[in-house]
């Protein structure tokens, strides 16, 4: 993959604003991601500063517009398209997909519908708003879900990340509690058929020559579920990068991840989360448009496995973003 696309730092390098923090449940993770991005950009000589996405942001951007922004915000602000839309209004280009694509990817049922339409495998699912759940009778609804999708099931918020509110349900009696836990983090629950297999994440990056899949990262959580604690607590998860996959399976996983990135209209970078079943078939679970950048995050692990430098990769992306005309989406 070479590093020529990333270039070297020079006087033409853009001034970059790294956006981190926010008010979501994932604020702490976002701050850690933002600091990692800041350090990586500065390591290759790019002028960058970090700023929270709060009431001071717009006046600062309008008074002194950066050449490009990197969105290191997780949760709704960074991933639902709203902040991207505001940056478009301010004429500030940014790394990552546009507001429209972010809105689709952020809503897991909508994204899964897009993937299913183009033949990309994703587990069967039902999306259930809390209001409908209550109106129609919880017991009757849950019985139908089990009849339709079987057991085990995966329950998680239809919008959100970092494994918050997610639970594996292996017995019908555990489903009500899982739904209550899910609704604590979102108004709609996504209940999908649980696929047993290897958890992998494929980061997709575009350094100027089209999107390409980095080596898959295999995720082995100690308790079997890659939840919030497993993601961000040292010692609870082991990662293998690249994943321990047969060459032909690794190639198929990369192909499916790229197809998902393309189908959702993404650009610059994304992370595709998949399960590889016992037969070696990949199933897309979700696609993240603002991947974590912390010391335990998967995109930096994949960059390292590819023999690349995170600062050079991000540098290539901010240069491309700075040269991109802004649009309103």
From TrEMBL:
The keyword Cytoplasm applies. The keyword Transmembrane helix does not apply. One of its GO terms (molecular function) is D-alanine-D-alanine ligase activity. SUPFAM superfamilies: Glutathione synthetase ATP-binding domain-like, PreATP-grasp domain. It is an enzyme of class 6 (ligase). PROSITE patterns: ATP_GRASP. It holds the Pfam family Dala_Dala_lig_C. It catalyses: 2 D-alanine + ATP = D-alanyl-D-alanine + ADP + phosphate + H(+). InterPro entries: ATP-grasp, ATP_grasp_subdomain_1, D_ala_D_ala, Dala_Dala_lig_C, Dala_Dala_lig_N, PreATP-grasp_dom_sf. Keywords: ATP-binding, Cell shape, Cell wall biogenesis/degradation, Cytoplasm, Ligase, Nucleotide-binding, Peptidoglycan synthesis. Residues 112-319 form the ATP-grasp domain. Pathway: Cell wall biogenesis; peptidoglycan biosynthesis. It is found in: Cytoplasm. Its EC number is 6.3.2.4. Cell wall formation. Belongs to the D-alanine--D-alanine ligase family. HAMAP family: Dala_Dala_lig. This is D-alanine--D-alanine ligase.
């Amino acid at each position: 993959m070479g590093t020529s696309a990333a270039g070297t730092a020079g006087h033409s390098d853009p001034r970059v604003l790294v956006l981190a923090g926010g008010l979501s449940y994932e604020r702490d993770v976002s701050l850690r991601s933002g600091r990692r991005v800041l350090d990586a950009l500065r390591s290759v000589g790019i002028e960058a500063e970090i700023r929270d996405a709060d009431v001071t942001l717009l006046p600062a951007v309008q008074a002194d517009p950066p050449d490009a922004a990197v969105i290191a915000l997780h949760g709704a602000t960074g991933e639902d398209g709203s902040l991207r839309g505001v940056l478009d209004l301010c004429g500030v280009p940014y790394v990552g997909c546009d507001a429209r694509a972010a809105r689709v990817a952020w809503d897991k049922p909508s994204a899964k519908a897009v993937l299913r339409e183009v033949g990309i495998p994703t587990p069967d699912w039902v999306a259930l708003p809390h209001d409908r759940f209550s109106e129609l009778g919880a017991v009757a609804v849950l019985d139908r879900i089990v009849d339709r999708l079987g057991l085990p099931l995966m329950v998680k918020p239809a919008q959100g990340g970092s494994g918050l509110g997610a639970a594996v349900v292996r017995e019908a009696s555990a489903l009500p509690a899982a739904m209550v836990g899910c609704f604590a983090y979102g108004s709609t629950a996504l209940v999908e058929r649980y696929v047993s297999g290897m958890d992998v994440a494929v980061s997709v990056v575009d350094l100027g020559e089209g999107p390409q899949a980095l080596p898959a990262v295999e995720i082995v959580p100690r308790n079997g579920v890659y939840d919030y604690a497993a993601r961000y607590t040292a010692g609870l998860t082991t990662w293998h990068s690249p994943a321990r996959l047969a060459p032909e399976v690794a190639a198929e996983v990369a192909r499916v991840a790229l197809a998902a990135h393309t189908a959702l209209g993404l650009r610059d970078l994304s992370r595709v989360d998949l399960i590889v079943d016992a037969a070696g078939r990949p199933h897309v679970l979700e696609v993240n448009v603002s991947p974590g950048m912390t010391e335990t995050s998967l995109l930096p692990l994949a960059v390292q496995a590819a023999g690349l430098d995170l600062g050079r990769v991000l540098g290539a992306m901010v240069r491309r973003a700075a040269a991109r005309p802004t649009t309103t989406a």
